[in-house]
Amino acid sequence: MREVSPDAGVAIFGAMMLIWIVLAVASFALFLWALIDCVQREFRDPTMKIVWILVIILIGFIGPIVYLIAGRSMGEKRGQTAAGPPPPPPS
Prior knowledge:
Blueprint: H1 6-40, E1 41-43, H2 46-58, H3 62-71, E2 75-77
Antiparallel strand pairs: 1-2
Helix pairs in contact: 1-2, 1-3, 2-3
């Protein structure tokens, strides 16, 4: 039977910790992106903004994903119309 070096366990543990850290940072970045985007958007019904913020905060990793897929299209970016950004002022 082949013996496993004790250093192999340390290497596996280090790799797993690195994966968890990358996933945690990515999850936090996704959370911030969704929350900031939701706060900056204007919804037809003001209660929808509160509902989406609660979804993003309370449902964990899935909440920001659900918002970015479904909720983002319900609101408009402030200062923009459905046709896009406002035209530049005449000079």
